[in-house]
Amino acid sequence: MSAKKETVQSQATQYLTFMLREEGFAIEISKVREVLDVTTMTRIPRMPEYLSGVINLRGNVVPVMDLGLKLGMGSIEYCKNTCIMIVELEVDANLVEMGVLTDSVQMVLDLNPEDIESVPKMGTNLNTEFIKGMGRQSEEKFLIILDIDKVLASEGEAALREIDSIASTHSVAANPEESVGAEA
Amino acid sequence: MADSEYAEIFREEAGELLEELETSLLELEKDPADLKIVSRVFRAMHTIKGSGAMFGFDDIAGFTHHVETALDKVRDGSVPVSTELIDLTLASRDHIRALLDAATGGGEADPTEGERIIVALQVLVGGGMPLAKQAASAPQVSEEEKDPTLGRRSHYRISVKPTPEFFVGGSTMEALLAELDTLGESTAFMDAEQEDGGALILLTTDKGVNAIEDVLVFAESSCRVTVTVLAVEGEEELEEHKKLGEILLEQGEISAEDLKTVLDRQKPLGELLVGEKLVSRTSVDAALAEQKLVRESKEKATVAKGAESIRVASEKLDQLINLVGELVVTQARLTQVASQHKESELVEPVEEVERLTAELRDCVLNIRMLPIGTTFVKFKRLVRDLSAELGKEVVMVTAGAETELDKNVIDQLGDPMVHLIRNSIDHGIELPEERERAGKPRKGTISLAAHHSGANVVITVTDDGKGLDAERIRQKAMEKGLFRADTEPSEQEIWNTIFMPGLSTAKTVTSVSGRGVGMDVVKSTVDALKGSVSVTHSIKGQGTTITIMLPLTLAIIDGLLVKAGETHFVLPLSQVEECVELTMEDIARFHNRRMLPVRDQLVPYVRLRDFFAIPGERPVREQMVISRINGERFGLVLDGVVGEHQTVLKSLGWVYRHATGLSGSTILGNGHVALILDVTNVMQCARQEEHNTLIN
């Protein structure tokens, strides 16, 4: 009995839980490098809305993504709990850092494989590709375990498509009349 | 087999030698009579052989030995320099490279290739050992190479000066001597009166110097041991015989002053000879002058070699550059803080720091700068081999080989250049007969040129071949849907479609007229280096020029810091021509058309606030920064100009790699991130968008 318990424990994975709009989410803690308070962000123009901009992380320029917007849950409103998780992921064999904006970071949680249920086929209102499973925190409480690599890696093509659409709707000469008319 | 650390040293050294070898061989081909070049080739081979054997690369040493043997015949003049010889030596160089790569874990070497070269060389120089024996004896030869004294009776002088630890460890000099005695005849000179208990041993043995070192190896940690080969029997002396005084001096038996006083009593040899009327004074003077000259040139060579260079791992340099980058940022911050505090005591030291930082930055960046000529050599070889293969006659001329570029840029430039040159030879330059019919010289010319232009380096590849067939390329591009049927692309636009991936397969334009093999690779590599590549000139029947433009360095640039809304932007200072003011009256005067006369010339402009959709009211007086792009003036309208700013380039990260109008970012003194503008890209996008709006 005790032996069995040990093996189970060794299989437990640590997750970092965080909130997006009162909903609990979790990602593997091994992916998270650090958690920061929100700092001055520089927006990159002509990029999709959910790419919030870049921050200066001790001399490195790190892009930040608004996870609320990315998952279609609405933009994150800044308050004192708002924070940026710095996540590490591998892109084309290079390790890159990326900031993920969330409403608040909660705790570190051990979850055993049997505490994780598979992804429901429907009803999450999320792209199921982004979900690794549903973690049981307590009897009633479930956490959505995100596959953060997939969320971030989907960036490449998605962003490119959006940039194209931005460019086609965008025009420098869109309304010259109005701009001068107002002031002349 | 070989220690990896030493293997790395050898690999680097041999790499350089092989490059030098290649240069020399190509020179030799032009000037076969120049024996100096032959010696250079010989020396390079010899060094590779020697250090190869030393570091345990037996196959390289073995193979090189044979090549060296052949070259020796050339050096002594018994075999002339011929094209075949150069071909074979070049092939040997490639084979050594392959062996080297194979030994250090990169690819495999074909052993039959080595044999083929050796056999061919044997035939060419005529004679030597029978072929079969040659091939078979390779490993033994290398063994011998490692230790030339092995198996030959040689005389050694061994000096052992023990430290106190030697005796603490329980060793005795007698035991050491006894062991040395087993190798051959030894005579030990031990000075019992001397306190250090050192010994001088003269040993004659045929076991080789390695065997002696094996005996001495355990003593080496606690003694100062030197082994000197005095003479190898049956071998000509390379060094002149040591004089008695020198030997005694070396052994520490006599002080230099004592020796000098004794020697001063002696008349110089020249005086004696003249005194005895054996030779005339003039011939003695001549001989003395010659001696002096040789000695001086030797000394000079030693000095020059000492100052030449040191080897540093490139990661260390990268680290240094990063640190200097951080320093530059911090210094900017310091300057900013100091200007706020208005402390007169601070002004001077802060200015000093600023000056020093700028100097340090330039210095550090300069370390990584290498002349581009180092890569030109590689291309000479490529041109030679490829033109021979295709039956074409091509000469390569270069200009501006001394132009310096960041090492990282040079390293990555190799592949695109190879592609361009290949294309020029393959598709540009015609066969000799064809050229004659067209009234051109039989020999085609490819010229590589490099020069600085502002903060950029411009590299051009020009051939005098048949030029691009614009009509064919246009058709092909239309088929591929690169142009819309209703548009009339300019000639330049048509040429530049050869860099599109769709047009790069061999069965398209290439086989008929144009170029295209791997041209998209060229473009993507150059783009990655923040440069640009384009066909700048092509006339049918006369040739083509392709121009690559690259930034001098990828690390730090001088920029102009500007502001639009809350966002700070940096323009590369090299692209900024002037700044003018744009007022409401100016805008109204031109009926909202986005252009402004500046010095009798209309300059079109783009308002950054509009282009980047930056929210907020724009100021009443705006600033316009004018750049010159491809010869055209173009203005960017912004809220205000902050000032000059030294910019450490940082990438925006992979998420933003497709960002429009931006080439990177930088960190300002206050820790905020500013964006670096790609003015060319802004202009192109704005033009395209205006065009699209008009069509709709």
Descriptive account of the structure:
- The complex is a heterodimer of chains A (184) and B (696).
- With 184 residues, chain A is an alpha+beta fold.
- Helices cover 23% and strands 40% of the residues of chain A.
- Chain A is built from 5 helices and 11 strands; from the N terminus they run αβββββαββββββααα.
- Chain A has helices at residues 2-11, 67-70, 148-153, 155-169, 176-183, and strands at 13-20, 23-28, 32-37, 51-57, 60-66, 83-91, 94-102, 104-111, 116-117, 131-136, 142-146.
- In chain A, the strands form 2 sheets. A 6-stranded mixed beta sheet of chain A has the order 8-1-2-11-10-9, with no helix packed on it.
- The longest helix of chain A is centred in the last third of the chain and has 15 residues, at 155-169.
- Residues 1-8 and 171-184 of chain A have low confidence and may be disordered.
- Chain B is of the alpha+beta class and 696 residues long.
- Helix content of chain B is 50%, strand content 21%.
- Chain B contains 26 helices and 21 strands.
- In chain B, a hairpin with a 3-residue loop joins strand 10 (532-539) and strand 11 (543-551).
- The radius of gyration of chain B is 35 Å and the shape is extended.
- Mean pLDDT of chain B is 77; it is low at 128-146, 235-239 and 504-517.
- The A-B interface holds A 40, 42-47, 51, 53-56, 59-63, 65, 91-92, 94, 96-98, 152, 155-156, 159-160, 163, 167-168, 170-174, 176-177, 179-180, 183-184 and B 326, 329, 567-568, 584, 587-588, 592-594, 606-607, 610-614, 650-656, 658-662, 665, 667, 671-675, 685-686, 689-690, 692-693.
- Chain A: Residues 12-157 form the CheW-like domain.
- Chain A: It comes from Thiovibrio frasassiensis.
- Chain A: This is Chemotaxis protein CheW.
